[in-house]
């Protein structure tokens, strides 16, 4: 698409901003500056769900936009490899920093797998809608465990990972994003009247880069601040 959809850019940018805020508060807790029960306490868990929903809706929309008429294999494989390498880096860093709670299937791992699984649905919005509703309903009815399929290899995985995204129900959200990406409502770009400056749209356009670098920057700044305060 030559013309960007402002509504999608804003949704993605909002997800990025909320994610940075969430992780900053999490880091404050890790450094002992606050005692809030993040990420698993009441309110914080739901806050994370909002962030994930926005991200994964955008994943589905992106698949519909780019591959909705014909699969662009070169672009898909390039993006798939970028996300997969990012996921591997997250796992490697978590093994060093949190060996008892390392990340084996976090946000980037999920996005890579979900993109691969959802690609055949990119041109089938009605089928994607039914798949999305089915997966979400199956989870909420208790038919499928959120630990599936990792329950079968649980003895080799940490009992608690610093980031974990269940395939079910979140794959259903990606499917709903595909349906939304084909909708007339989104095609009309309901927020298109908002004139974004380049810096305002930058986080949404470079979400993978922001995801990879924001935590090292936040932790680095807090480490320096903590050192100066103690000194």
From TrEMBL:
Transmembrane segments: 7-26, 46-68, 80-97, 103-122, 127-144, 164-187, 208-229
UniProt keyword Transmembrane present: yes
EC number, as in UniProt: 2.3.1.78
Domain of life: Bacteria
Keyword Transmembrane helix: yes
Keywords: Acyltransferase, Membrane, Transferase, Transmembrane, Transmembrane helix
InterPro entries in UniProt: HGSNAT_cat
Cleavable signal peptide: none
Heparan-alpha-glucosaminide N-acetyltransferase catalytic domain location: 4-216
Annotated GO MF terms: heparan-alpha-glucosaminide N-acetyltransferase activity
Protein's UniProt name: Heparan-alpha-glucosaminide N-acetyltransferase
Organism annotation: Simiduia curdlanivorans
């Amino acid at each position: 698409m030559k013309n960007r959809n402002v509504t999608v850019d804003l949704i993605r940018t909002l997800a990025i901003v909320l994610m940075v805020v969430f992780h900053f508060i999490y880091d404050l807790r890790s450094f002992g500056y606050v005692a809030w029960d993040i990420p698993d306490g009441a309110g914080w868990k739901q806050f994370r769900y909002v962030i994930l929903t926005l991200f994964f809706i955008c994943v589905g929309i992106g698949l519909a936009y780019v591959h909705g008429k014909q699969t662009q294999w070169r672009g898909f494989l390039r993006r798939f490899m970028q996300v997969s390498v990012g996921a591997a880096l997250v796992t490697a860093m978590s093994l060093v920093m949190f060996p008892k709670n390392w990340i084996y299937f976090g946000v980037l791992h999920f996005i890579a797998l979900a993109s691969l699984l959802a690609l055949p649905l990119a041109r089938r919005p009605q089928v994607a809608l039914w798949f999305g509703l089915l997966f979400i309903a199956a989870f909420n009815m208790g038919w499928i465990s959120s630990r599936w399929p990792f329950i079968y290899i649980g003895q080799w995985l940490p009992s608690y990972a610093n980031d974990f995204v269940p395939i079910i129900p979140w794959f259903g959200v990606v499917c709903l994003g595909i349906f939304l990406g084909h909708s007339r409502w989104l095609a009309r770009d309901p927020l298109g009247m908002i004139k974004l400056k380049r810096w305002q749209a930058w986080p949404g356009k470079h979400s993978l880069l922001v995801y990879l670098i924001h935590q090292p920057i936040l932790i680095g700044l807090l480490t320096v601040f903590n050192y100066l305060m103690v000194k």
